[in-house]
Each structure stands twice: as structure tokens, then as C-alpha cells.
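Re: weekly structure request thread

Next one in the queue (289 aa):
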Amino acid sequence: MVTERSLEAQVLNRGFARMGARLRIVPREPGTVRGAGRSRRPQGQPLERGFTLDVAEDTHGELFELTVEKGAPLSILAVDVRPEDRHLLLLVKFLGVAGTSKQKFLCGHDERHWFVAAVPEASAARDVASAKEALKPPVVRAAQARLALDAREKNGRKNRAYVRQGEWFFVPAPDVKVSEALVLGNEPLQRGRGKPHLAEELYRWGGRDVYVADRYPRPLSEGAYHALLTRRPGLKNLGWRRMRLAPQVVVRGKISHPDHKTIVLRGWHRVLPNTEHEAAAMRNVVFLD
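Done, posted below.
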């Protein structure tokens, strides 16, 4: 069981320190919690399955914050630490009466900030390198295989198969046919509640209309949206946004984000998010980019 002064906590702290990061373990009573320090966690958010993992800030800068419910049957271990890469793979075991289940999280530093990404449970990630590969969408992995990239190239943010900025991958799409009249300028790329990446030129097609709001980040179909407002008309002032779910998207030109170096894409590139949305463990990650 992880507590502030347990041997498990000491081992975890050493693992995070090896990659140049600080870890704060915060015990909480069962139920809801309040953010500690300058955490990005909304006030009163409940713990997910006994713990949450966050990137927080204090007077010394950024740190990882692990909030653990007292008495939660958890075992948490840094199974692979790569100091030269400033990454580690965190394994969380849930010791339940029905058996043991596992979740994995890639923790690391990307350009300017620390991050946490939940690794899809279906993957066989066993170390930092395989966790990074598990977070790449199938189209990206197929492009890497086709071009026979070596391990060094695969680990880069830019190579012959793709350019990456944060959680977004951009794969060259020279054969796509674009209607120039429908190209949008300075269009956001956003998943969840994080700060958007801005694309200088964007073209999308396909998909279906959905509605989202801060209190309803999971997309609602048009029918579900209207049914909800019929039942609860007071929710109509939540700042709903009409968006397209699962469209095909290509971008060109500058891609910018306050936490990342601006990249410039010559020619159209297909836009693909990483695979962390496939992980049930994503519920335990508080910080979203």
C-alpha cells in the first residue's frame, strides 16, 4: 500500500528523481478530494479507482502529484526509468477480490513540460520504448514499418514517417484531394479540455455532428443533445459547442501551441491523435494537454 513514508513511496520517489522530476504523494480520505497546491485538478473531483495522477505546480516549478485514497488496495511501481530520455513507465496494480488488474502510465518530459499519458491496456508495453510505440496510432506504426525506420528515428518527434507535436501526429498525405474553397484558417485541434493546437490551414470531411460542453466533455449526438435539453432546459446555457466527431482531417502550414515549438508542414498532412483515449486508465489522469 502506498503511503507518504512507505518503502514503496521511497522507491517511487527515487525513480522519478532519476529522470529529473519530483513526485508528491498526497493521501486522501475516501470520497472526493480538493486540489493541492496549484494542481490543475478541478475542486471536488472524485478519485478514480483509488488514485489520480497529475502534473501540478508549486513554488519550485512543476512536479508529478499522485493522490492516493487511504486504504486503497494498490501497488505502484516505476518498472522502467530512462534518465537520458527523461521518461519512466509507471505500473499500477489493483489488488481486488476478483484478482489483479493493471494500468500503465508513461510519465516524461516533452519539449517544455512534464506530462502523463495512459497507455492502452490492450498493448503489451513493458518498458518506455514499447509504451511510446503503443501510444502511436496504427497508421503511424504502419508508415514506420513501410519506411523501415530504426529505433532512433522512431523515438524522434520528426522523421520520414511523421511529425509529432504533443499528442498529435501529422503523416504526409500527398494524394489527398482538397477543395481549396473549404480550407479553414487558424483552426484549433483539440481533444478534451486542454489548450488547443492551432493549424494555419485545415481541411476536414466526413464524420458526424456532436455537441460538447465543459460539463459534458463526452460528445452527444444531435438527438441526445436535444433530448437532454428537453428534460433539463436549464442546461442550455452551458456554452455548448457543435463539433464534428471522427472526421478525416488534413493540415498544412504552421502548427502552434503555447507548450510546444511551432512546426511547419510543407504540403498536406493527415492529423491523428495518440492512442491514450483507448485506455481505461485515462480516467486516472487529471492533467490534459
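Residues 1 and 188 are 42 Å apart (CA to CA). The radius of gyration is 20 Å.
Next request, please.
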